[in-house]
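We emphasize that the prediction below concerns an isolated chain of 376 residues; any contacts that depend on oligomerization or on bound cofactors are therefore not represented. The input was used exactly as deposited, without trimming of termini.
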Amino acid sequence: MARRGHGEGSIYQRKDGRWAASISLEGRKRKTFYGKTRKEVQEQLTKALHEQQQGTLATGSRQTVKAFLLNWMEDVHKQNIRLGSQRRYTSLLNNHILPEIGHIPLQKLTAQQVQALYTRKLKSGLSVSMISGIHALLHKALDQAVKWKLVSINVCDAVSVPTKPKHENHPLTPEQAKKLLEAARSHRLETLLTVALATGMRKGELLSLRWADVDIEDMSLQVKRTFLGKYKGENKENEPKSASGRRNIPLAQFAVDALKQHRIRQLEARLQVGDAWVDCDLVFCKCNGDFIALTTFHESFKALLRDASLPNIRFHDLRHSAATILLSMGVDMKVIQQILGHSNYAITANIYSHVLPSMSREAMQKMDDVFRKQSR
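Result of the prediction step, given as a token string:
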């Protein structure tokens, strides 16, 4: 028989000996809890009544973590993120999250299970950066689950994430930059590296640059898109992440000269290829005019670093090289922000603040020279 205490919902013992408790929901629905003892279901019911009063009671349909994440990714999150992020999140789901916790009922997922997932991944050799990506994805998805009242809390709030080590930039000095360009002389990446060091453009921005974006007479170029690589057999591009990323960059004379020579060589290569030429109007392309594969590009860049006896830096460090060289020449930080396409001044200042002390010393030296001459 049902036994009901004041304000506690229904508690009763089933024929199989188990205890059950239930509360009323909107739409004449009921939510039921089961346990071995009356005390056990009483505790569940008390918690549920409190959550119902607070408006945090999970009332959605029961489903596994896998079913929820796939539905959330397809119907919600995928619509609001760029293609590159879609590929990264899909990889995290399929390779790391779903095989580990996908079978767990969503409402029974615990912080301990998520913490154990991170620990296993860390021990298996997965980078802290990747684990941080897993956490960010899970946290965002479970926030939505809370809003949909599929769960009452986001268990990721109670999980500790491994500290992500801060990546140190390794910009080239002007002398090292010259060594790199010397090693790249007559190489098909020579002009690309020249433009990279002259403009601080990102790899994807360079690989998607069109001749229509380059104004030789005005000595400038426009950044309008970025290359993401191949996805499902097709070359994919995106617009810059922010409005400031879509920008006009002035070119130094040495970069313009390099582009002029590169254009001549490319036209000669096009004549040799003939009908096999893929007309994408790309400034930097394969020998048939098509997009350069990211893996091939990466391997070629690393080989040039070895040939020049330079440190094994990332290509992105050429962007930092351009910025630090400009700063050392006295170019204003605001101008560098616009060239790099940072959305605000603080980003630029934070990244390159390490250059400022040496600039300050140079400024004090110049001031000292002025006043010491006057005192004489």
